Amino acid sequence: MTQAPIPVVVNGATGKMGRETIKAIAASKDMTLVGALARNPDRIGQDVGEVAGCGPLEVPILNDMQGTLALASQEKQPAVMVDFTHPDVVYENARAAIAYGVRPVIGTTGLSVEQLNDLADFADKASIGCLVIPNFSIGVVLMQQAAVQASRYFDHVEIIELHHNQKADAPSGTAIQTAQLLAEFGKAFNPPTVDETEKLPGARGSQTEDGIRIHSVRLPGLIAHQEVIFGAPGQLYTLRHDTSDRASYMPGVLLCIRKVLELKSLVYGLEKVL
Ligand SMILES: NC(=O)c1ccc[n+]([C@@H]2O[C@H](COP(=O)([O-])OP(=O)(O)OC[C@H]3O[C@@H](n4cnc5c(N)ncnc54)[C@H](OP(=O)(O)O)[C@@H]3O)[C@@H](O)[C@H]2O)c1
C-alpha cells in the first residue's frame, strides 16, 4: 500500500525561501501542499504556484494562520508547517502550529534561547515533533563538523558570516550555532594577548561567552556565506561555505518535513536528523 502524501503548509510562502519551498514541495511525490500563508494584501487570493513560478497548484495564498492550521489538522495524515517568515512572528507561529497538532519545521532564524526552551517544553508536553533548523544546507553541516574537528587543535577562532542586506537578524543563526558547537567541549577560545581598545564600538565584532568572535557583513549581492578562521603561530586554517542559490537548501527542507513526523519533541539543527 502506498503511503498518503504528507500535507504541508508553507508560512511565508511569497518570500524568497517560501517560493523555493513551494516549488520543491510541488515536485515531491510524497508531499501535498495544503496551505500557503503570507501578509501582503496584493498577494492574498493568488494561486501560490503561479507566484512561486511553478504553474497553478490550486492553493490560494491566505493571511489566516489559525484557519489554515485548523484545516491542516483535519487532514488524514499528520500535517507539517514550514516557516520562513520573520524573527518577530516565528515564535507565535510555532506555538500555534503545535497547539493545532501541526508539526513545525522552522527555518526562520532569530528565536531567543528562552523562546527555544519554551517551544521545547510545549512540544514535549504535546508529544509533537518540532524541528528548528538554522541552516538547511548539508554543506554547512559538513563545514561545522570540520570546524569542531579543528577546534581541538586551535585556541583562536573567529567567524565571519556574510548575508544579503534584507536579513533582519544578526549574527546569523548559523554563526551562533557554529559557535555553540565549537564551545560544546568547554574550551575557552581566544585568550587575550594584548589590552585591546575598540576605537569604533563593534570593530571586533560580537563575542560569545566562550570568547568566539562573530562578525556580520550585510550587502546586496550576497546570499549566504560563512567563514570559520582558525589561527595559530605560523598558520591559518580557513573553512568557507558559499550558497549561490536557495535551491541548495531544499534537500534539507524536504528531509526535515519527512523526519519531523517521526519525532515527539523539539530537535535543533540539521546535523541531528541527517
Ligand atoms: N534556515 C535556513 O536555512 C534559512 C535560509 C535562508 C533564510 N532563512 C531565514 O528564513 C527567514 C525568511 O527569509 P526570506 O529570505 O525568505 O525572507 P523574505 O523573502 O523577506 O520572506 C519573508 C516571508 O515572510 C512573510 N512575513 C514577513 N514578515 C512577516 C510578519 N511580520 N508576519 C507574517 N509574515 C511575515 C512575508 O510575507 P509578505 O511579503 O506578504 O509580507 C514573506 O512571505 C529569515 O529569518 C531568514 O533568516 C533561513
UniProtKB/TrEMBL annotation:
InterPro entries in the record: DapB_C, DapB_N, DapB_N_CS, DHDPR_bac, NAD(P)-bd_dom_sf
Keyword NADP included in the entry's annotation: yes
Catalysed reactions, semicolon-separated: (S)-2,3,4,5-tetrahydrodipicolinate + NAD(+) + H2O = (2S,4S)-4-hydroxy-2,3,4,5-tetrahydrodipicolinate + NADH + H(+); (S)-2,3,4,5-tetrahydrodipicolinate + NADP(+) + H2O = (2S,4S)-4-hydroxy-2,3,4,5-tetrahydrodipicolinate + NADPH + H(+)
Signal peptide start-end: none
EC number: 1.17.1.8
Top-level class of the enzyme under EC nomenclature: oxidoreductase
Every Dihydrodipicolinate reductase N-terminal domain range: 6-136
GO CC terms of this entry: cytosol
Chief location bin: cytoplasm
GO BP: diaminopimelate biosynthetic process; lysine biosynthetic process via diaminopimelate
Residues involved in NAD(+) binding: 12-17, 107-109
UniProt xrefs under Gene3D superfamilies: Dihydrodipicolinate Reductase, domain 2, NAD(P)-binding Rossmann-like Domain
Localization of this protein: Cytoplasm
Domain Dihydrodipicolinate reductase C-terminal: 139-274
Family annotation (CDD domains): DHDPR_N
Active-site residues, record numbering mapped to chain: 163 (proton donor/acceptor), 167 (proton donor)
Function noted in UniProt: Catalyzes the conversion of 4-hydroxy-tetrahydrodipicolinate (HTPA) to tetrahydrodipicolinate.
Assembly, per entry: Homotetramer.
Family as reported in the entry's similarity comment: Belongs to the DapB family.
Name of the protein described by the UniProt record: 4-hydroxy-tetrahydrodipicolinate reductase
Source organism: Thermoleptolyngbya sichuanensis A183
Gene: dapB
